[in-house]
Design a protein that fits this description.
Elements (H helix, E strand, L loop, with lengths): L11 E12 L2 E12 L3 E6 L5 H8 L7 E6 L2 E2 L5 H5 L2 E4 L11 H6 L16 H13 L15 H13 L5 E5 L7 H17 L4 E6 L11 E6 L2 E7 H4 L2 H8 L3 E6 L2 E6 L10
Helix pairs in contact: 4-5
Length: about 280
């Protein structure tokens, strides 16, 4: 790839530096700094309107900042051809919409074409077919490979979108509330898949947006808390996801617990759950 600014620190795959986003004269993000390195798995947590989805859109090279710089895989937005850059990013969005009833296999193929639909007169190569079928097996949907998208359950759609995001063998995986609408078994199955993928691909970096600590995989390594467009805490997950930090970010007394590598949160008005330090 050419035309971009080469990042001096090679293991930094995502960087926001002094980023502001203003929309309709209203600040969405203000002075945001963040660095994500290879092998790190970040959670972005905040209330509705805190700026999480906007941050993810910047990291996905789908939006430009009003001020500051966004560097993705060593390339600074505004100085690089975006289509090639986006092909190196896997994006899981549960609001994925299709106009045509593609099958699971066809949806996964679109992960390598850069769009939600299959291009006209396009057909996958043998290698693309093999990778898609392998990924469909990884997410446990081999028997449903030919099932049309409209007939899938929410959990089956979530698994399909993870496979789709991985079809291009991305260096970054971005997940926007991937467990939205899932029941408990479907959610746990999806989080198990994410933990497995992270273990098997140690250089992969990921960022997951969620409202709920229960939706974080055990492999989450770092976290950033947002409030009204600003980061209130960021860094190693055990230092960030504390009762005090989360209460401040969400403006409500909360108690955070971690058991078996997974998190839970309850109202601080019912202090009968062990508190993290």
């Amino acid at each position: 790839m050419g035309g971009g600014y080469a990042e001096a620190v090679p293991d930094v795959v995502l960087r926001l530096s002094g980023v502001d986003v203003i929309r309709d004269e209203r600040p969405i993000l203000a002075g945001v700094d963040l660095e994500v390195r290879q092998g790190e798995h970040w959670a972005l947590i905040g209330a509705n309107g805190a700026g999480k989805s906007t941050m993810l859109a910047l990291l996905a090279a789908q939006q430009f900042p009003s001020a500051g710089t966004v560097t993705v895989l060593g390339m600074t937005l505004g100085r690089v051809e975006l289509r090639g850059l986006r092909s190196r990013i896997g994006h899981v969005d549960p609001r994925h919409r299709l106009m045509n009833p593609l099958t699971v296999r066809e949806v996964v193929w679109t992960g390598g074409t850069g769009g939600a639909e299959l291009p006209m007169r396009w057909s996958p190569s043998d290698a693309e077919r093999e990778r898609a079928d392998w990924l469909i097996g990884v997410v446990g949907l081999r028997r449903l490979a030919d099932k049309p998208w409209p007939t899938l359950s929410q959990g089956e759609r979530g698994r399909t979108l993870v496979a789709r995001a991985l079809q291009s063998d991305p260096e970054i995986l971005l997940l926007d509330e991937p467990t939205t609408g899932l029941d408990i078994p479907a959610r746990e199955g999806l989080l198990d898949i994410l933990d497995q993928l992270r273990a098997e691909h140690p250089a992969l970096a990921s960022v997951l947006v969620t409202h709920h600590l229960e939706d974080l995989p055990a492999s989450t390594s770092h976290a950033a808390l947002l409030r009204e467009g600003a980061i209130t805490a960021s860094g190693a997950v055990d230092r960030v996801l504390t009762s005090a930090n989360l209460s401040a970010a969400l403006d409500y007394p909360l108690i955070v617990a971690r058991v078996g590598g997974r998190w839970s949160v309850r109202s601080g008005r019912h202090p009968n759950i062990p508190e993290t330090e």
